[in-house]
Amino acid sequence: MSPHNARWTIVVMALFFTCTVENTSIAGERIDFEPAPEFLQLPDGLTLGQCSAVDFDSQGRLYLFHRGKRPILVFDREGKFIRSWGDDLIGKAHGLRIDADDNVWVTDIGHHMVFKFNSTGKLLLALGQTDKPGLGENQFDKPTDVAFGPKGEIYVTDGYGNSRVMKFAANGKFLASWGKPGKGRGEFDLPHSICIDKQGRVLVGDRENDRVQVFTADGKLLAVWPGFAPYGMELDKDGRLFVADGRASQVLQIDSTGKVQNSWGEKGAKPGQFNLPHMLAVDSAGNLYVAEVGNLRLQKLKRKR
User: Fold this and answer.
1) What does pTM read for this prediction?
2) Highest CATH level, class, for 32-303
3) How remote is the C-alpha of 182 from its chain's centroid?
4) Which residue from 16, 43, 138, 226 lies 20 to 30 Å from 87 (Cα-Cα)?
């Protein structure tokens, strides 16, 4: 290798190392939040039921999933109501995620289904068999959450009844599944939440076993992070992991090795307190939004700068 090429190789390696260290440092940064005033402007005559999930699309629109009339609610950045849908389809609201194309995915534990909608509520895909729970490749038993792989793969935690993870192609074709009921490594007792981190790891919130289990994209177990009940999980744009611990009525910040870096809240109904925090989302400004089953509300936590 010539001296010139050697110098360039050293420069490129140094830049790569610097970027890697900076990204790891950002993801591991301990941050803080404070309660923010209520901001949602509900349509006339609507009262929120149990709030189970929340997420944002690329335009900053907020999608709230709740157990009541008009179960999928959409709001603009200022909290102004835009539209709703789902009365004729949803049995019981659970998980909601927005994919990279702004499609809205929800899990319905009432009818044992996973639905994909466009941003205006048009049904694009339905996975499962309505009111027919089972262990088949095209069946769920109260599916809980959805996550998306780098090639559009769909991961579903299947959930209350089957204690497994299912993987589908972007078009809905079944690819694989893993897990069974139990407390051993790789086994589940209510896989309740799921997300894919920047390393491509599949993080599964194993709720009743009080742990997160970490897998490869094909279901090989990599790590077990015990010590909290992961009802909901959310990664922000920098890779920070936030967990809604419904059992402790807290929200946690977790580092890339599973250690708790920070926590917020206690049981109660005041701002900054929680009653069964279920699932959560982060907006483009880094603020945190927590859907609460017990307090029948969506709570905003403003990030401190």
Assistant:
1) 0.91
2) mainly beta
3) 23
4) 138
